[in-house]
Amino acid sequence: MRWSARPCFSLVTLALVVTACTADKNAVSSPASTVPFTPPPAAIPVAEPEPVAAATPQEPAIAPVVEPEPETPAAPAAPRKVLILGDSLAATGFGVLLEKKLDAHPDIECWRKAKSATGLARPDFYDWEAEARKQVEARKPDLVVVILGGNDGQDLTPKSGKGKRVTWKSDGWNDAYKTRVADFLKEIGAAERKVLWLGLPKSELNGFEGKLSIIRQVQSEAVADLGATGTYLETTPFLSDAKGELLATATVGKRKDQDLREDDGIHFTMAGSQFFADKVYPEVLRVLELADLEPESAARPKK
Fold first, then answer.
1. CA distance 216 to 259
2. For residue range 213-239, what is the model confidence (pLDDT) as tens digits?
3. Do residues 171 and 215 touch, judged by C-beta distance below 8 A?
4. CA of 232: how far to CAs of 41, 66, 109, 199, in Å?
5. Per the confidence metrics, is the pTM higher than 0.85?
6. Whole-angstrom Cα distance, residue 129 to residue 85?
7. What whole-number distance in Å separates Cα of residue 141 and Cα of residue 135?
């Protein structure tokens, strides 16, 4: 009897398949062959952003206001002409020194006409109206400085010798004297010309001072009637202390305790003349509108 080889092949093949399957099963189920599980990384906490404080609104920057520098008045093209008229105060130290100070200014030309013991009360003795007319026609001043009236506390006589005399301190004296002052101002005044009338300096003599107070009042009223072209300058503060007392001495330049008055109590010493001229000088510049010019202009030579 012959054995067939086919069944044997089948058994062997089956055995091999079973063995292979067993091996695969063991390989799958074996712990050694298992891939370890790696958990996902823990989430990294993200810090919350700190709240940002709201910005304080800033006011817009404002550029500082720069005030323009005041313009310095230009020096006049031609020198200003000044004429001084008056009695003994203008004829002596004060008038001489004021003229000298004004004429030394680079923008001023100054002249002076004065006569002692004169005034407006006695045109029969000295006719100030006629003299003033002649002076302004010759000089054609821009400003006339007047110091006059210390001799006028008396009767008013007519110019021609004819007419009525007006008695001192009579009811009509003030009005008649104001007319004299107004007529004098007409002779020296003009639309383009200014007048600076200096009030009579306070006297040390009570009786004489009583006369001067009346004369000052009438003169100031007449000058006020000129309007913008007329300036009346009260000079009493220049010669008084803080209490209103009349100064007997003062520092003049670098000299201390200088006597300001002559023995008559009316006229100035040379120191007093300089003291008074130094006070009046800037007032003249102010009226001429030269007070604000640059100081160095005084160094310029006269034209």
1. 25
2. 999 999 999 999 999 999 999 999 999
3. no
4. 106, 39, 22, 7
5. no
6. 11
7. 9
The two structure tokens encoding residue 175: 């009005």
Partners of 193 in the beta sheet? 190
- Tell me whether strands 255-259 and 249-252 are parallel, antiparallel or unpaired: antiparallel
| Gyration radius (Cα) of the chain, Å | 55
pLDDT in tens, 236-250: 999 999 998 999 999
Tell me what pLDDT residue 297 has.
Answer: 47
φ/ψ region of 289 (left if φ > 0, alpha if ψ in -120 to 50, else beta) reads left
| Residue 233, H or E segment | strand 230-233
Bridge-partner residues for 256, per DSSP? none
Q: Minimal CA–CA distance to 106: which of 301, 285, 273, 291?
A: 301
- Mention every residue, 6+ apart, whose C-beta is less than 8 A from residue 164: 158
